[in-house]
Amino acid sequence: MCGTCGAKITKHRVLEHINSTDSMQANFTEIKTDFSKSYGTILLSKDGRTKICYEHPRKITIIKNNGIILHYDHELDELSQFKNKDNLLESLLSNKLNADSEITCQDQNCVVTITDGSERSIAITLISTEKDELEVKSINIIDGDLQSIMEFKNLKRNIKLNPNMFYFERDHNKLFDY
After folding, report:
1. Per-residue pLDDT band at 172 (split at 50, 70, 90)
2. Which of 22, 41, 87, 126 has the most CB atoms within 10 Å of its CB?
3. Which residues cross the membrane (predicted)?
């Protein structure tokens, strides 16, 4: 546990920052275990809704909510639906972190690690900006032997969410809505 993280970041500030985040939207670059890269946008909401839009190497949209994962491959025009197992990414904002949360800091960076008691974990890296504000810089997801790091740019917190952000549309017909 860190108490005071570097000169400007305290454990209290880190917990307050994450727990006060209701939603998050960012552009990302994702690097996987095999060193492959993809990029796109991600939208996370405290109520558990998640939308990931991959633009490269293949245009894919993933929406997670209410125990369902929808996977739409734009090139194949193919929609798949799965039941959602517990997902650490989806629960990132919905879980309240507390004083017992694992937080380690070095210089102007802090890492918060969330585990589910198995081989799965998620580590959130926060940095202190020039304006002395905290910013989520990346998320490292580990699920057994698989690892994925999402590095964020243009991150916006606590944005107003439009329900239309969480459905697919094909030929102006709504395919799925929460």
Report:
1. low
2. 126
3. none
CA distances to 37, 40, 74, 166, 169 from 58, in Å: 11, 10, 8, 20, 18
Peptide bond into 57 cis (omega under 30): yes
pTM over 0.70: yes
Strand partners for 148: 32, 141
Q: Classify residue 98 as exposed, middle or buried by CB count within 10 Å of its CB (0-12, 13-18, 19+).
A: exposed
Distance of CA 28 to the CA centre of its chain: 10
Tally of domains in the chain: 1
| 25-54 pLDDT, tens digit each | 999 999 998 999 999 999 988 887 889 999
